Amino acid sequence: MRLRPAEASTPRLRLLGLVFVLYFTVSGGAFTLEALVADVGPVVALTALVVIPILWAIPEALLIGELASMLPVEGGYYRWVQRAFGDRWGFLNAWCTWLYSLVEMSLYPAIVVQYLGAVMPGLAHGWIIGVTLLVIWIPTLLNLRGAVPVGRVSVVIGMLVLICFGLLGLFALPHMTHAPWATLGPPQPIRWSSLGAGLSLALWNWIGWDNASTVSGEIEDAGRTYPKALGLAVPLVALGYFVPLLPALAASDWRTWREGGWPDIAREVAGPIGPALAIALVVLAILSATAMFNSLLLAYSRIPLSVARDRLLPPWLAKVDERDVPVRSILLASTFYSILALLPFGELIAADVLLYALALGLEFAALIQLRRTEPQLRGPFRLPLGRAGLTVLALCPMLVLMGVTFLEFRDGEFGGRALLTACGAAAAGPFVYSWLNRRRTLSTR
Predict the structure, then answer these.
(1) Which of left, alpha, beta for 75 (phi over 0: left; psi -120 to 50: alpha)?
(2) 1 inside domain
(3) What would the pLDDT profile of 369-424 be if each residue is shown by its tens digit?
(4) Residue 159, in any domain of the structure
(5) How many domains does the chain have?
(6) Predicted confidence band at 1 (pLDDT cuts at 50, 70, 90)?
(7) Is the pLDDT of residue 2 over 50?
(8) Fewer CB within 10 Å, N or C, the chain?
């Protein structure tokens, strides 16, 4: 199989653009953290936001950094798993990825609608549909221009988000009256119904470090650039969370926090600049959610492209334009996302985390397998660990997943149902592969 590289004359995504593409495929700022605090309280929220990076984000970034350096090819994680275990397992990784992309991409229009509702209460259903489609199709038009424009827009919006939340944290400092983790009142009993959903939300704010690997063929010197970008993006995401969150918690009563509440928090804690920051946060929440959709569309649209190049999907999906942009794959993806964009927000996150972790587990296994079967295969970045050390490092995120999954199943309202649905959809992957592979075999006779 010949992997088609990007043309030499095609502009490539460079380090700064990739850092902010990663920033938006993972985070996009402290938006949704107010919902996390409202669900589980400051102690559990802060603990989760500290522990999850240690057990999940940092191990994931290290393992993905080696894989991206080892195999910097278009298709990213799909190609990694395929090389390690063959076509079937590569397709299963792509299948889980596509499933969770359908879930994930439905979240960002919902976030935009939520923040618009804070300033325009009572939005009519027709307006909600219109806003949802705009959030999907404006980034689609930008993606049709290629990876470099997506990176440039990500840099601009990312800097604005970081500056705005940085100002909120700075102006909240003089108004701090207690420790950020103070419960303010009698200890709240643990609500198992919200703990699982809350921890899924915390985990969701740290996942996605492998996403941009699918455009490695469009990154300048991807084997070196991707690990460097990970090394910059991980602390950038952490600063984006804790710089505003800690002072805001210390200057307000967390019991008044709610979903979509950052503008109200800014008015309360940021003194004279609070009203202006509140307006800016509404605007930036909308821009951030759109930028997240924009960066993730860049990543996810390369999966149908790569699978089509292996003749498991129709060959018309493998076509690219003169700028090496997979126009048809992007348009197909956006059409699916438009159809599924109005699903319930909380249930989506529960399913998204599990589907992502299933795909990620295959990627970790691929690294361990490639270390065994192709020890000479290495890139500029390589972890100083043997296979046993890699296995221990890979187990850390899986343990986090098991804990969050257990708590989700305790949630009888929707968590268990969402997880069972996700498991059922993932289990259909082998049957879909068998059918597609049979069609591929028949077409070559």
Answers:
(1) left
(2) no
(3) 999 999 999 999 999 999 999 999 999 988 888 887 777 666 555 556 667 777 88
(4) yes
(5) 1
(6) very low
(7) no
(8) C
Which pLDDT does position 143 carry in this prediction?
96
- Both tokens of 330, joined, read 């992007």
Q: What is the 3-state secondary structure (H, E, C) of the chain?
A: CCCCCCCCCCCCECHHHHHHHHHHHHCCCCCCHHHHHHHHHHHHHHHHHHHHHHHHHHHHHHHHHHHHHHCCCECCHHHHHHHHHCHHHHHHHHHHHHHHHHHHCCHHHHHHHHHHHHHCCCCCHHHHHHHHHHHHHHHHHHHCCCHHHHHHHHHHHHHHHHHHHHHHHHHHHHHCCCCCCCCCCCCCCCCHHHHHHHHHHHHHCCCCCCHHHHEHHHECCHHHHHHHHHHHHHHHHHHHHHHHHHHHHHCCCHHHCCCCCHHHHHHHHCHHHHHHHHHHHHHHHHHHHHHHHHHHHHHHCHHHHHHHHCCCCCHHHHCCCCCCCCHHHHHHHHHHHHHCCCCCHHHHHHHHHHHHHHHHHHHHHHHHHHHHHCCCCCCCCCCCCCHHHHHHHHHHHHHHHHHHHHHHHHCCCCHHHHHHHHHHHHHCHHHHHHHHHHHHHHHCC
Q: Quick check: pTM over 0.85?
A: yes
Q: Residue length, the chain?
A: 445
The answer to whether residue 7 sits within a structural domain is no
Report the alpha-carbon distance of residue 391 to residue 372 in Å, rounded: 12
Query: What does the pLDDT look like over 27-79, one tens digit per residue?
Result: 999 998 998 998 889 998 999 999 999 999 999 999 999 999 999 999 999 99
Query: Which residue is associated with the tokens 């003194």?
Result: 271
pLDDT at 428: 93
What CATH code is carried by the domain that includes residue 430? Answer: 1.20.1740.10
Q: Is residue 161 part of a domain?
A: yes
Q: What is the pLDDT of residues 67-88, one digit of tens each?
A: 999 999 999 999 999 999 999 9
